[in-house]
Amino acid sequence: MAPYGQAALSQQIGPDRFNADWKNPQHRARRLVSEFIGTAGLTFVLSGGAAILALYAGAPVHPFQAAFILSAVSALWLVAAVYFLGDISAHFNPAMTFAFTLRGDMGWPMCATYVVVQLIAGVAGSMLARGFFGIEGNLAATQPPPGLALHAAAFEAVLTFGMVLMVLSMANGPKLNGQFIPIAVGAYVMSLGTMGGPFQGAAMNPARAFGPDVARGDLSTWWVYVVGPLSGALIAVLVARFLRGPAKAQEAQAAMGTPLGRE
């Protein structure tokens, strides 16, 4: 059976170079710092944006208007962040990291490290916003409607499925900052965030939900935004494999970034 994902990349470039470059502690540290910046930036602009709307909008903001504005803010941040960090690492989402790992693009120990860093970053971004504005606007916390937690989890699964499938289908080059990938990610986040935001927040990202929840001190519904996105990511990986076959070497490189000094 032909290797796929990370194993295919190792075979393509040779184990010595793979171990020297992709397993180099410096490259791994760069990836984690990149993930921290991107994820913390996401929760900061969302939590800060929600607080500023509550404090300075001049009038109560309709939930759909708030969802549109916050979706646009987060989409624009993701477009910018994927453009300038994509060649290092631009998952910014535990569900996306989980999908790349399931596909074979990276190992489980690195996956666990990514998720820990993403969750810490999510908290850091929201806490920074809280330091400026308090917990106004609920810091853009995602919450299911009363009595509809399971519906909200299923909704999260659907939204995350589409996002992960799109990224897995497009991230097939040596970098995750190709010409159209950041724009596609931003468009998806804005469209689905605007549509789903008034219902239950439309997180599509456990770290994005975790940050505001910790900052405001309420993790009672966070499970919705873990179970839903991870379930959607799992289904997306299965569908992507059916549509496109196993991950190739260049797809693994897109997920793992490009080490310093390598083209």
How far apart, in Å, are the first and last alpha carbons? Answer: 28 Å
Strand content: under 5%
Mean pLDDT: 92
Q: How many domains comprise the coordinates? A: 1
Radius of gyration: 18 Å
Summarize the biggest pleated sheet: none
Overall number of strands: 0
Q: How much helix is in the residues?
A: over 70%
Structural class determined from secondary elements: mainly alpha
Membrane topology: Multi-pass membrane protein
Pfam families: MIP
Keywords: Membrane, Transmembrane, Transmembrane helix, Transport
Transmembrane segments: 36-58, 64-85, 106-128, 148-168, 180-202, 222-243
Q: Any key phrases for this structure?
A:
transmembrane helix, Glycerol uptake facilitator protein, 263 residues, Aquaporin, mainly alpha
